[in-house]
Design goal:
The chain is α+β, with helices and mostly antiparallel strands. The protein has two domains: 118 residues, no CATH class; 56 residues, no CATH class. Helix content is 33%, strand content 19%. The longest helix has 19 residues.
């Protein structure tokens, strides 16, 4: 994940979208599939007047981040810097000029996520999407369901809520009409 502060002039004005999904490779992982969220212009809680806050997120393999940290903080920091630059280059497809307009760039890696969320190995945001037309099913076995951001593309409260709604619908479909 990359948190980016930019000059607001580089972001298209409303009614332009505040969310973009950029697919630059196949499969769309490791920076080649990117979800971009942009703070609304009126949201002074996320960015000062004239500025905008962006969040760039992608799926990444967890192991190499931990290996880089084990190799030394300089190795880890170099990996985070290179990965962040890659995300900014991919974001250029949706928002031309964004890389040059970046005034603040804060990476978040699996190491960061473990530290701040307590999730083992920093795993958040569910399973990587390898197709735009398929997703992991919530049913693991008879009477056993997986719910949360592990079955819905993306992370955050909306992903958990939408994942829960998806599982609830699947359970209702499987159990048949009420009272039956």
């Amino acid at each position: 994940m990359l948190h980016v502060g930019v000059d607001g002039a580089v972001v298209p004005p409303a009614p332009a979208p505040l969310h973009y999904q950029v697919v630059a490779g196949d499969p769309p992982v490791e920076g080649d599939g990117l979800f971009v969220s942009i703070s609304p212009e009126w949201d002074a809680g996320r960015a000062p007047p004239g500025k905008r806050a962006l969040t760039l997120s992608t799926h990444t393999a967890i192991g190499p981040w931990w290996a880089a940290l084990e190799a030394g903080r300089d190795v880890y920091d170099a990996r985070a810097l290179a990965f962040g630059r890659r995300l900014l280059r991919v974001a250029e497809r949706a928002l031309p000029g964004i890389e040059a307009a970046a005034e603040l760039v804060l990476p978040g890696t699996p190491v960061t996520f473990q530290r701040y969320t307590g999730r083992r190995w920093g795993w958040v945001g569910g399973f990587p999407q390898t197709s735009l037309f398929g997703a992991l099913g919530p049913r693991l076995g008879r009477g056993l369901w997986l719910v949360g951001d592990s079955i819905f593309p993306g992370q955050s409260t909306p992903a958990v809520a939408l994942g829960g709604m998806r599982v609830a619908r699947a359970v209702l479909r499987e159990s048949g009409p009420a009272g039956g």
